[in-house]
Write a structure and sequence with these properties.
Radius of gyration of chain A: 18 Å
Mean pLDDT of chain A: 94
Strand order of the largest sheet of chain A: 3-2-1-4-5-6
CATH topology of the largest domain in chain A: Rossmann fold
Oligomer: homodimer
CATH superfamily of the largest domain in chain A: HAD superfamily/HAD-like
Low-confidence stretches of chain A: 1-11
Number of helices of chain A: 12
């Protein structure tokens, strides 16, 4: 069925937009720093947000190498948090408070263009997540932020984290389309390169303040991407939505 | 994390409503019979719809027994269709026409109470699908019908069909809640019994015309269920939404 349905369609006809989440759709740094300043004003909120996020790639690498079994991001986030509390003067936090703090990743705020951008894009395309966040995290985050996904796909769906090819190829297989009919939308060049290697189209989203106002990102265009957009409203404009 | 988070909550506090789809949320018989009458007026539309659906449980049983490898419902539907065409005078249909006809399961119409019922229920609960339909089928069906799921879960998520315990227990595990904090909403007693055996709460939905006006269903209450509702508006009323 896969080959039949895919081959009967115009191969470059874009059908599915798959969105990275952390940094691309939601402002993890701003959301974490804001909540930390409110709840724990003695903590270096900027440094804490950055350190928590920096633990993420090494933790996933330990899973993908086989050192750790398959682990949900909620659990990796918690392991990283437990390793950070001493450095940030939070060793006194009990189990319930740590569990609540860990769910900060379920409460991240979207960038201001996201809800309107997705609403326009989903009139023309199937819009889904493709995030290393687990289904619970993505579902609760999307529900509280009102993000109108057609479907939530996660590393959990494929039992592999991006940039494993099973994730990018998995989106095309799930929706029974050719890889070039899927576009990954992301603010990170390594993610986009992984998608490109699997034959997906790619759109880079500028999120210059992803790591906070003190750490502006270089958002120069990479000509390897099919599109370069300022935000999701710009993506909708450029796609004629 | 599972045991910690679940045990810290009031166990009978309902958090998640998981919905069966075929018959419970969408009118498969009416949708298929209507489209068949329009496109193939010479065919016994009622008999064709029933025969297609009747092939479904035996096909899944062949997968679960290990006779067939893991197979998406779209592909099972197609195998059943290919076995039916001769009996219904449709042997002349080519590959493209069969592929289009098979996607009738992506175009099923919801019962009239569904969109409004889900919109009310999702203000208070996390609402998700739990269907043997594959993710592509459920996503496209929900998109065209405007069904506002918080998350789409499928047999494909768990690599097992209902009533396998991995599906019911999987909903609780995905959302990090206790089984009794999930309620399965379905129009079929065997599905509800499977959920109950895994510790889920259950709501039976009357869909007396699921198999068409010529074949009304017995919709008598089974006291084993936590709730018995006429439709999703009645479910919202009874849950105080």
């Amino acid at each position: 069925m896969q080959s039949l349905s895919a081959s009967s369609l115009e191969p470059r006809t874009l059908k599915v937009l798959a969105f990275d989440i952390f940094g691309t759709v939601v402002d993890w740094h701003g959301s974490i720093a804001r909540e930390m300043r409110e709840r724990y004003p003695q903590v270096d909120a900027d440094g804490f947000a950055l350190a928590w996020r920096e633990g993420y790639a090494p933790a996933m690498a330990r899973v993908m190498s086989g050192e750790l079994p398959w682990t949900l991001i909620d659990d990796l986030h918690r392991q990283i948090l437990d390793g950070l509390v001493a450095d940030f003067g939070l060793s006194h936090l009990g189990q319930d408070e740590r569990a609540h703090l860990n769910r900060i990743w379920h409460r991240l705020s979207p960038w201001p263009d996201v809800a309107q951008g997705l609403t326009r894009l989903k009139q023309h395309y199937l819009v889904c997540t493709l995030s290393n966040g687990n289904l619970n995290l993505l579902t609760r985050l999307s529900k509280q932020a009102g993000l109108p996904w057609d479907c939530i796909l996660s590393a959990e769906t494929f039992h592999a984290y991006k940039p494993d090819p099973r994730t990018y190829g998995g989106v095309a297989r799930v929706f029974d389309v050719a890889p070039e009919q899927v576009m990954l939308v992301a603010a990170h060049h390594d993610d986009l390169a992984g998608a490109r290697a699997c034959g997906l189209q790619t759109a880079y989203v500028e999120r210059p303040l992803e790591c906070g106002a003190l750490h502006p990102k270089d958002v120069q265009a990479d000509p390897a991407n099919d599109m370069h957009v300022r935000d999701l409203l710009d993506l909708a404009d450029q796609l004629g939505c």
